[in-house]
From TrEMBL:
Domain Activator of Hsp90 ATPase homologue 1/2-like C-terminal stretches: 15-135
Pfam families, A to Z: AHSA1 (PF08327)
Protein name stated in the entry: SRPBCC domain-containing protein
Domain of life: Bacteria
Organism: Actinocorallia libanotica
InterPro entries for this protein: ASHA1/2-like_C, START-like_dom_sf
Family to which the UniProt record says this protein belongs: Belongs to the AHA1 family.
Amino acid sequence: MAATGFEYAITRTLNAPAGEVWGAWTVAEDYGKWAGAEEVVMDVRPGGSWSSVMVIPGGARVPLTGSYTEVAENEHLVMGMDVPGRDEPVLMRLDLAADGGSTKVTLSQTFDTAEERDQAEQGSNMLLDGLAAFLTR
């Protein structure tokens, strides 16, 4: 990740083994269930692509696309998201650390502006809320 700009990192401990957390992020059917996404397609490997349609509160549908830049199963995943008007994708890093039967999850990103960072941090907290609820079922 770039060392300059506006960064955030959110860390949570989830009551599930790293393999389950990894699967929730990398199996299209599971990801769709907790992330509020439909039409999820994932090719989880360096250089592989992903796409989904996020269904946001109120019913609006937002198509998203991107790619994977780093993949280390059950450890970390770096995903790029294509943003209209930007030459480079916005990167998000997911780090997993096994902690007994639980997993410490850290999501981090860097942005050009504080406003972009704050919006993304809010969205990431919502994602982690959905992930935690999915894993406790």
